[in-house]
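User: Fold this one for me? It's Helix-turn-helix domain-containing protein.
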Amino acid sequence: MYMTVPETAAFLSMPEEQVNRYVLEGRIRAVHDGEQYLINTSQFETHFQQLELAKAELAEWRATPIPDDVDIKDED
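Assistant: Here's what I get for Helix-turn-helix domain-containing protein.
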């Protein structure tokens, strides 16, 4: 599915100027149809998957209890 720059900015919760800059820098792939840039949204799927994974890892890290004694050493 292709979206315009304003639609993509709303989708990513970014200012339009930042999306335009990313398109011009090549950080977001886009096609120019002569009037406007069209951006394929499937390129963001991996980004959102990695973002969800990072959130889950952070939540797991925050849920790990702190040991009572900081000098405890793992002795296997």
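One thing worth pointing out: Residues 2-63 form one domain.
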